[in-house]
């Protein structure tokens, strides 16, 4: 899911996203509650109409901001109180309020409020986050009033196997339509993340979607799908695109490098996006060197297309029984840069 935190995937029109394979977008409860406000979005027809997206939308609950804005919030069993990163105003999120905001926004998939601890948190803090996340999951389940929104429970526990198992085992009886794995890609190594997935996904229902939040690199997507994950979101494709880095079938390409100045080759011959079929590397580099807006737009679109193509190709490989060889081929190609 490309990330449209504030109701837009930066620099891209919805029809452009559709054209490169996007099916579903993500937006953020915390940020939209601050501006323009959930009431405004509701008054203007809900998030789909507001951002002109007729496909599914998932909204995060604000739980990630518990981690990313740790210096601007206070937390207890009742609520999280944020001091706005914009103007210092107060935003209070209780489990009930997080659900109410997401109901006003009108997303198709909504998330329980959770506590996401940092990767280096002591085990006592991780255990406390699991306890609180479980408590809040029940309160969110009790609050939900709309039957047209799929509420996902979120498994926490850091990289501690026993805490992950405990979190999953407490959430599964609540019978959520889907389950997310949070609290990864927050400072742990890829090996630690993969090991945590190996232990966690078997505790989640295989017939329901499993969503790994905030991940990640192309190799992380491949490794995680083969460990049972179905859904992903991450800012990496668009953030890297805006900063002149492209993901390609042969590895990452730094578009500002001087070696691309006179390069007439396409960015990625295996890609059919506008950046690759209409422009050469020399032109794309020129856009960034000259500070032109088109450069970040084209690379953002290309990176999203690359992520979607990778997932589509992996899906075919799984159906054809060659997932392991697909993984090996991808990792070898991406490491050859």
List the topology elements.
Elements: H1 14-19, E1 25-28, H2 29-34, H3 38-43, H4 46-51, E2 57-60, H5 63-68, E3 73-75, E4 80-83, E5 90-93, H6 95-105, E6 109-111, H7 123-143, E7 150-155, H8 161-171, E8 178-181, H9 190-200, E9 210-212, H10 218-225, E10 231-232, H11 236-242, E11 245-248, E12 251-254, H12 274-278, H13 281-289, H14 294-319, H15 323-334
Parallel strand pairs: 1-2, 2-6, 6-7, 7-8, 8-9, 9-10
Antiparallel strand pairs: 3-4, 4-5, 11-12
Write down how many β-strands occur, each being a DSSP E stretch of 2 or more residues.
12
Lateral strand order in the biggest sheet: 1-2-6-7-8-9-10
CATH superfamily of the largest domain: Queuine tRNA-ribosyltransferase-like
Instruction: Specify Rg, calculated over alpha carbons.
Output: 20 Å
What would you note in describing this structure?
Substrate binds at residues 60-64, 114, 156, 183. Residues 1-335 form the tRNA-guanine(15) transglycosylase-like domain. This is Queuine tRNA-ribosyltransferase. With 337 residues, this protein is an alpha/beta fold. The protein folds into 2 domains: 14-234, Queuine tRNA-ribosyltransferase-like (TIM Barrel); 239-334, no CATH class. It is built from 15 helices and 12 strands. Strand 4 (80-83) and strand 5 form a beta hairpin. The longest helix has 26 residues, at 294-319. It is globular. The two termini are 26 Å apart. The model has no long low-confidence stretch (mean pLDDT 96).
């Amino acid at each position: 899911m490309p990330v449209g935190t504030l109701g837009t995937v930066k620099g891209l029109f919805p029809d452009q996203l559709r054209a490169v394979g996007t099916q579903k977008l993500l937006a953020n409860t915390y940020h939209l509650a601050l501006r323009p406000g959930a009431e405004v979005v509701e008054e203007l027809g809900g998030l789909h109409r507001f951002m002109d997206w007729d496909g599914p939308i998932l909204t995060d609950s604000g739980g990630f901001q518990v981690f990313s804005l740790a210096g601007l919030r206070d937390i207890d069993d009742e609520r999280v109180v944020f001091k706005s990163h914009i103007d210092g105003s107060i935003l209070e999120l209780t489990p009930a309020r997080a659900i109410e905001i997401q109901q006003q926004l009108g997303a198709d998939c909504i998330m329980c409020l959770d506590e996401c601890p940092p990767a280096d948190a002591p085990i006592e803090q991780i255990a406390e986050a699991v306890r609180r996340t479980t408590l809040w999951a029940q309160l969110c389940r009790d609050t939900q009033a709309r039957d047209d929104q799929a509420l996902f429970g979120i498994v926490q526990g850091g990289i501690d196997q026993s805490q992950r198992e405990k979190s999953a085992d407490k959430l599964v009886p609540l019978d959520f339509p889907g389950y997310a794995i949070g609290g990864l890609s927050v400072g742990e190594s890829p090996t630690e993340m993969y090991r945590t997935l190996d232990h966690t996904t078997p505790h989640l229902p295989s017939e329901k979607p499993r969503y790994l939040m905030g991940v990640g690199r192309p190799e992380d997507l491949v490794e995680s799908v083969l460990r049972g994950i179905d859904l992903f979101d991450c800012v990496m494709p668009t953030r890297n695109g805006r900063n002149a880095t492209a993901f390609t079938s042969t590895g990452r390409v730094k578009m500002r490098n001087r070696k691309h100045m006179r390069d007439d080759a396409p960015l990625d011959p295996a890609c059919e996006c506008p950046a690759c079929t209409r422009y050469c590397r020399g032109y794309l580099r020129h856009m960034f060197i000259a500070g032109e807006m088109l450069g970040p737009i084209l690379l953002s679109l290309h990176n999203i297309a690359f992520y979607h193509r990778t997932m589509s190709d992996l899906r075919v490989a799984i159906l054809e029984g060659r997932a392991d060889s697909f993984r090996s081929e991808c990792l070898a190609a991406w490491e050859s840069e």
